[in-house]
Amino acid sequence: MKCLNCGLEINNNLKISEIFLFKAKIPNYICQLCRSQLAPLIGRNNCPRCDKPDIGTICRDCLMWEKKYRIINCHQALFEYNQFIHSYFKLYKRYGDVLLARLFYQDIKRWSLQHSFDVVTYIPASPSHLQARGFDPVYELYKDIFDLKKLFAKVDADKPQAQKNRLERLQTPQTFYPLPALEQIQRNQSILILDDIYTTGRTLMHSHDMFLQAGFTNISTFSLSR
Ligand SMILES: [Zn+2]
Ligand SMILES: [Zn+2]
User: Fold this and answer.
1) Tens of pLDDT along 117-138?
2) Is the same domain home to 17 and 103?
3) From ligand 1's centre to the CA of 196, what distance in Å?
4) Shortest-distance ligand to the CA of residue 75
5) Can you list the positions of beta strands (E) in the chain?
6) Of 64, 114, 116, 134, which is the most buried if we count CB atoms within 10 A?
7) Å from CA of 32 to ligand 1 middle
């Protein structure tokens, strides 16, 4: 098998000890060279609520979400946002290489096997983005791993998040609205909301808030990068 990112042949030769571990059965689409450029968040002294790396306490933003929206942030992520992740999302989202959706399959799948939720949903692309790109990047990233439910939609915003500065992002008003499918979900179910990148947290906090307003209490969020 070749690395989806760089085309190098992936060495999947397993050590004897690995053959007996479940992780050996999960397909891998990233080579060791690319993997060595990632900065995993696990095992570091992160914000306990949002996985902001190496700060060792509840971060300012999480305290702000609690004060302003009464949201106790419950977010996990896999990799620190760095140059490799930046280049990956540029190829995947800006240049629309949909095959790259599976690059982190093994990591996300492994996380999914270690956590359990009643309902898994995702941050949907806005209609104009979907039309321009031809696919929904968050949906494609997770569709083979989780049983995804589309429970809410996004209105077209004034300008894309990526073109906004930090203040503009934080001040963006709620752009999500619930779909009829949300009404079918029992309010005591645990909800997981997926996104690709967590930057200021605003996007996920808006969706978290929407579920809170709808009467849900057990809400977690997850992103590939933070
Ligand atoms: Zn590679
Ligand atoms: Zn935090």
Assistant:
1) 999 999 999 998 899 899 999 9
2) no
3) 20
4) 2
5) 75-79, 119-122, 148-149, 152-154, 176-178, 191-197, 219-225
6) 64
7) 7
